[in-house]
Amino acid sequence: MPDPNPLAPLRQRLLEFAQARDWLQFHSPKNLSCALVVEAGELLEHFQWLTDEESRHLAPAKREAVAAEMADVFIYLVQLSTAMGVDLVQAAQQKIDLNEQRYPAERARGHNRKYDEL
Amino acid sequence: MPDPNPLAPLRQRLLEFAQARDWLQFHSPKNLSCALVVEAGELLEHFQWLTDEESRHLAPAKREAVAAEMADVFIYLVQLSTAMGVDLVQAAQQKIDLNEQRYPAERARGHNRKYDEL
Amino acid sequence: MPDPNPLAPLRQRLLEFAQARDWLQFHSPKNLSCALVVEAGELLEHFQWLTDEESRHLAPAKREAVAAEMADVFIYLVQLSTAMGVDLVQAAQQKIDLNEQRYPAERARGHNRKYDEL
Amino acid sequence: MPDPNPLAPLRQRLLEFAQARDWLQFHSPKNLSCALVVEAGELLEHFQWLTDEESRHLAPAKREAVAAEMADVFIYLVQLSTAMGVDLVQAAQQKIDLNEQRYPAERARGHNRKYDEL
């Protein structure tokens, strides 16, 4: 039987990291959500003046910097999942189930109408 | 040998979802970062007027709504990882390695000084 | 008769600043909205680990840093208002007109129920 | 002598609006910054899947919706300026003074190098 939560090792490591520093006291869902949106902003900062096309072809150093921001977003999201008792992968799978019903492939194909309705 | 990327099944499902709708054309790193920050804002919206303490004790319906927003953030982050060719779990582990050096447990314990320096 | 747009001098100065550097080409509403949300994140960064109460009593240096981030948010908002042809003060007054109807003072008094409905 | 703060009437109206509902208790700088970034995300949502060019030519209904989101961002920014005791226009003018020194027109002309350094 597969591990029910493929992110369990990462969650555990982050929990121990915070516990060793006595930082769980700061990790309310509100604070973690603030931190997540701050990091999401730092991620977007790399792209704010680029065209779509330029954003698809980053120089290696910029790509590394973007990956580091993605890691920060992910870390806060995993810590939030611990604070909330939410299984991220399961929650994502359920959301995709829902989106498959909302946006049938044959009707949604090739235009961004869906996005305007979200 | 364990699967090198525990998120591979989710990545694959999201890729097929987008391909079936011909939506990869919209999934530039810039657009996905925009979408991610928008969803992060929707997540934070649930907490904006709550105290830290209230955010730790959500009613079940609100908790479900928060989990759904976390799923949206995660979905765009995974799609961005595909667009960028970044392994999220590996990037997070490397970032934690770095943070362990930056914030030794014995010095960081119990105050949020670290956070002010970030 | 009073000036219909009290922000006109600031708008004009920002327009000339961008024109002198040939930067209007980058100032699409999409890009300016990205830049605005990035700066809003930098603003929030100062508060992310503070309690509400701590955020009401900042040290002078931190208060200065927060004011500088508020200026950045405002600058992009004013530039966006130029790009969109929107009068910010007028748009705000109209929104307050609407909010006065939505949230009559006698019913909204003293609880944050309104905020949950927004 | 001109009014030292052209936003004073709007600040005053927003202050009275909040006082009449006993909402100032919720208006800590932290909460207002959260609300501001949430609204900035709602603003960006309108543009997230558009090209730069599309964002410059919005249909009238979409333009109205964007203006309403800009108003929300502005309202929270003005309320934050009250909570912090910051004069927004003055802070913006000081920031532009600084940017004129940082990015001399003759060197910054026509490329977005400046943006990458920010």
Protein described:
The structure is a homotetramer of 118-residue chains. Chain A has 118 residues and is mainly alpha-helical. Chain A contains seven helices and no strands. The first copy, chain A, has helices spanning 8-20, 29-45, 52-55, 60-84, 88-102, 105-108, 113-117. The radius of gyration of chain A is 18 Å and the shape is globular. The mean pLDDT of chain A is 92. Chains C and D meet through helix 1, helix 2, helix 3, helix 4 and helix 5 of C and helix 1, helix 2, helix 3, helix 4 and helix 5 of D.
Number of helical regions of chain A: 7
**Mind describing the biggest β-sheet of chain A?**
none
How large, in whole angstroms, is the Cα Rg of chain A?
18 Å
Average pLDDT for all residues of chain A: 92
Helix content of chain A: over 70%
Low-confidence stretches of chain A: none
Strand content of chain A: under 5%
The helix/strand series of chain A, from N terminus to C terminus, equals: HHHHHHH
How would you describe the shape of chain A?
Answer: globular
User: Biggest interface between protein chains, with counts per chain?
Assistant: C-D, 68 and 70 residues
How would you name the oligomeric state of the polypeptide chains in this document?
Answer: homotetramer
Q: Count all strands of chain A and give the number.
A: 0
Structural class of chain A: mainly alpha
Distance between the termini of chain A: 37 Å
